[in-house]
Amino acid sequence: MKLVVATGNRHKLKEIREILKDFEVISAAEAGFFGEVEETGETFLDNALLKARAVSRATHLPALGDDSGLCVDGLGGAPAVYSARFSRMFAPADWTAEGDDDARNRAFLLYKMQGMADRSAHFCCTLALCFPDGRELTAEGRTFGRILTEERGEGGFGYDPLFFSDDLQKTFGEADEEEKNSVSHRGRALRRLKELL
Ligand code: ITT
Fold first, then answer.
1. Which of 51, 68, 106 should be mutated for ligand 1, with most atoms under 8 A from CB?
2. CATH of the domain at 163
3. Residues 6+ apart with CB under 8 A from 117
4. Residue with CA nearest ligand 1 atom 7
5. For the chain, what is the domain count?
6. What residues are paired with 127 via a beta bridge?
7. Which domain does 185 fall in, by range?
8. In tens digits, what is the pLDDT along the chain, a chain of 197 residues?
9. Cis (ω within 30 of 0) for the bond into 79?
10. Most buried pick, 2, 51, 109, 122, via CB within 10 A?
11. Strand-pair partners of 24
12. How far is the CA of 124 from the centre of ligand 1 (A)?
């Protein structure tokens, strides 16, 4: 089965390709989609559906949307759907940090969690697979752990170097791709979706 991944995030695309080895997975650009989908939803499910529907409609192919994020108990579940935009949306004007969005988000998370004793957190991934004929499948995966006080490991992306996995007993930044995919929110959601298919 051929499907388009409705993401602009190359790390997500790589993980999805690795886990859906038995599918023909193409990027949105390879399918001729260069648009931006506005993520106006308030839930992972809303945003996953927005992305998948837009790309399926435009390309006339089955499209997979992935909306995911980190939920920190001590922050009331934040940043959740705002994970990618965390520092851009919520950092005060006098807060500064170096690096790309991922590095700045990690630095802002550490800043927000200074002195916090409860560091438990989970990643959530909601997938929506939308077909050109209007059929839709959705699946969710979670993975639990805690947020360290400093980064460990160079692998992965986003918050991975700060997320100490309960399952792996190391950070996702220290894990290799196969280890991360075997327990990650995205791996779990994709395996559930395959069962549904
Ligand atoms: P698309 O919307 O184009 O798919 P995005 O990166 O904007 O790309 P999201 O809106 O779903 O995607 O935001 C996901 C953010 O959550 C991502 O940028 C990371 O900060 C974080 N995140 C999600 N999955 C992650 C993972 O496996 N490891 C580390 N951080 C992750």
1. 68
2. 3.90.950.10
3. 74
4. 84
5. 1
6. 66, 139
7. 2-196
8. 999 999 999 999 999 999 999 999 999 999 999 999 999 999 999 999 999 999 999 999 999 999 999 999 999 999 999 999 999 999 999 999 999 999 999 999 999 999 999 999 999 999 999 999 999 999 999 999 999 999 999 999 999 999 999 999 999 999 999 999 999 999 999 999 999 99
9. yes
10. 51
11. 2
12. 10
